[in-house]
Write a structure and sequence with these properties.
With 855 residues, the protein is α+β, with helices and mostly antiparallel strands. It folds into 3 domains: 10-223, no CATH class; 239-707 and 783-799, no CATH class; 802-854. A hairpin with a 5-residue loop joins strand 17 and strand 18 (851-854). Helix 13 (331-361) runs antiparallel to helix 24 (680-702) and helix 19 (496-524) runs antiparallel to helix 20 (556-594). The longest helix is centred in the C-terminal third of the chain and has 39 residues, at 556-594. It is elongated. The two termini are 48 Å apart. It comes from Salarias fasciatus. Keywords: Cell membrane, Glycoprotein, Membrane, Transmembrane, Transmembrane helix. It is a multi-pass membrane protein. GO terms for molecular function: chloride channel activity; protein dimerization activity.
Amino acid sequence: QPKSKTRITAQHRLVFQEDTVFFRDGVRRIDFVLSYVDDKDGEKKQERRREFEANLEKAGLELETEDKSDSKDQKTYFLKIHAPWDVLATYADVLKVKVPFKESDVPHGQDVPLEWLSHPFRLPDHVMHPQPDYFTYPFDKNKMDFFLINDKDTFFPPSTRNRIVFYILARCPYFKEGRKDKDKTGIKRLLSNGTYTAAFPLHDCRYWKRARNAECESERFNLYKHWARFLCFYKEQPLNLIRKYYGEKIGIYFAWLGFYTEMLFFAAVMGFICFTYGLLSYDVNMSSKEICDADIGGSILMCPLCDKKCPFWKLNSTCLSSWQSHLFDNEGTVFFAIFMGIWVTLFLEFWKRRQARLEYEWDLVDFEEEQQQLQIRPEFEIRCTNRRLNRITQEMEPYLPVTSKCARFCLSGATVIFWVSNLSQCVSYRLAVYAAFASIIKDPMRKIQLVGRFITPQLATSVTASCINFVIIMILNFFYERVAIWITDMEIPKTHLEYENRLTMKMFLFQFVNYYSSCFYVAFFKGKFVGYPGKYSYMFGNSTKLRNEECDPGGCLIELTTQLVIVMAGKQLWGNIQEALLPLIRNWWSSRKGRHNPENHYSRWEQDHVLQNFSQLGLFYEYLEMVVQFGFITLFVASFPLAPLLALFNNILEIRVDAWKFTTQFRRPVASKARNIGAWQEILNAVAILSVVTNAFIMAFTSDMIPRMVYLYAYSKEASMRGYINNSLSIYNISQIPKENMPEDDWYRDYRYPPGHQKEYTHTMQFWHILAAKMAFIIIMEHVVFVVKFFVAWMIPDVPSDVKARFKRERYLIQEYLHNYEVERLKLQLSASFITEPQSEMSLMTPDNTSIILQ
C-alpha cells in the first residue's frame, strides 16, 4: 500500500503496470476483479452486468473497467473493484471481524530448553513476520475510536478485504429495483450463466520475483521462495503468513497436514524397526524352513485350490511366499499394532491442543456460532421461499419446511444405500480373475517367471486383481463424487459449514467402501468360508460353481499386504502426478491460446486470469486424500508396518506440491474462516476406534500368529516350532473327492480329523483351542488398547493450560477496557451536554449497571 496518496502519473503507471494492484490513480487498492467477454448474443448479459454493477455502486463499491482494447488478447474486459473505508467498516461490523484494540500485556511462556537444536528448521524473521500480540474484539462501526486504527488503508489486510467484497458480490442482485426476481442474485449465478467469465482477488506480485514497487507486498514471493520449493522440505511452514495471505481455513489445513506429518515420523520409525526385526529373524523362521525342505514340504501333496482346472500341488512350491509372509507376520507385528493404537490417540489429542492454540492466536474461538447465524448460503435463500422469524435475530429469514426436509433426507439415504451396495462387484471380480488364471496354469509344477522372480499363480492373481481393482477404484471415484455433490445439493443445507459437513460425511462413506472394501474382503472373508474337500462352499449357492476363494498358500496376510501396498502406493503416486501435472498443463494451454508475449508484459489481473480457479471444494479434496491415507495406515497397519513410512515420504512431498499449486498455479482464493478441520475430526476419531478392532481381528484371524503360539505352548513336545507345518495340515482321502471337484489330468490346510476316525472330517479339539485363543487375544488386545487410549485422552487436556489462562485473562481485560471506554464516552457526552445545558448533578448507569454521579 503506497504511503503517499499522491496520484501516479501515466509515466509512473507504465513502469508499475505489470505488478500493480491499484486503480489507475495508484491509490485505491484492487480488492476484486471480474472478467467478461462481449459476444454477439450478449444483450441479456449486458443488461445483467449493467444492473449488477449499478447495484454494486449503490452498495458503496467503487468500479473501474479495463477495456478489451487495453488487454493483450483484445477480447476480455476486466472490472476492478475497490471497497472504500465506509463499506469495509459497515460489513466488518456485520461479519463481526475481530480487530486489535490494545497491545496484549499477557506474558508468553518461557523459552524451551535446547531451542537452538531447532534453529536449522526455522525460517528467518523477515519471512515469518513476527508481530506483537493484540487484544481483539469484533469490529463495531459506532466505536471507531476504541480500536487501534493507525491507517485506514492498511487496517484491514487484503484477505479480509476480499472476503468482505465477495460477501457483497454473493448477495448483490442483478435486477432492477422494484422487480420480484429474487432468484436473480449473486456472482455465482452470473458466473454459471456466462455473464462473467471469472471472479477473483489478485495475487500481490509475481511468484518468482519481488514486486517492482518496493512499498507493495511481496508475500506471494516469500511463500514461493521459503515454502513452496521442495528444497525447503525440512523447514517449518510459515503458518502466520499462510493465514494472512490465504485466510484461516487454508491455514488450518496446512497446520493440520504439517502436524500429521510430524507425528508420522514416530510411527514410521517404529514400523521400520518392526520390519527390521522381521528381516533379522529371517533365518530362524522354522515354519518356512519346513515348507521349503524337500523332505517335508516337498513330500506333502496339497488338494486343488479350485474345481476342475486346478491341479494338486506340492507344499514346497509356496517357499517364496512363506518367507515373504514372515517379514510382516511375526511377533514384532503384535507390538506394532498395539503401538499404533496408542499413537493414533496421541496424534488426535495433541492435535486438539495444537488446534486450540491456533484458535486463540488466530481469533477463531467464537467464530463458528457467528458463521451459523450470519452466513446463510445464497442457494438456500433462493430455493427456500418460505419465511419465518428467527428467535435470535428477530428478523424474517428463509427456512425449509419439515415435510420437504424429510422427503429430501429419505431420497438422499436411499441413494447412498444404493451406491454403497455396489460393494459386491469387488468379490465377484476377484473370483472371476482367479478362475481365469487357474484355467491357464494346469501343470502342477509350472510357475510364472516375472522379472527374474518366481511367482505362484495365486500371487499373480492377487497382484493383477489388486492393480485392476485400483483402476476400478479410480473410475468409481468419478461417479461417487458427482453423486455425493448431487445428494448434498438436493438437501439444501442452510450454511456453508453445514454444506461442507454433509458433503464430507457422504464422500468419506463412498470412499471408505471404494478404497477399503477389497482390503476388508481379503482380511476377514477370503479363505474363511471355504469348507473342506468334498464339501466346499460356493458363492451364491452351489448352482453358480463359483467356489469361495482360498488364501494364497503363504497365507492371507501376504495377500492383504499386497492389496494394501498397491492401492495405497498407487493412490499416492497417481494423486501427486495428477495434482502437479493437471494444473500445469491446463495453465499452459489457457495461456497458449491467448498470449503471444512473455508473461511480464501482461498486467497483474491478466496474469492471474489464466491461472486455475480454486473452487469452493478444492480444500475438501485435499482433506479427503489425507484422511483416506490415514485409514490405510491405521485400519490395516498390522499387515504392513512400512505403511507409515510410505505415508511420511508422500506427505513431505504433498506439503510442497500443495504449496506450489497455491502459489503458482491457482488464482488467489477468497479468504475464508474456519476454527477447526470440521467434520474430518469426527471421522478421524471414528477411524481411530475402528482401527483397534480391525488390527485385533487381523492379528487373530488373518495372521498365523495365534495358531503358532497355541502349538508352541500347548502341543509342541520340544517347546519349539519344529513340526508345526504337519500339525497345521489335515489329511483327506482323495478317493472321496467328488468327481466335479477332481482336477482334469492328500493334504489341505485345516484342523480336522483324518479319514477312518470316528469323527471323520470334523474339527479337532485343537481347532477350538485356537479359536478360543483368537477370541481371547481380540478381547485382551482391544481392552488393553482402549484402556490406554481413554487414559491418555483423559490425562491430556484438549486446551493447553497457558492458552486457557491467557484466554481467561483476555476476556477479563476486554470487559474492563470496554467498561472504561463506555464510561469515558458517557463522560464526554455529558460534558458536551453540560456546555449547552448546565446542570448541578446527574446520575447515570454504566454498562455493568453501576451508578455513578457526575457533578
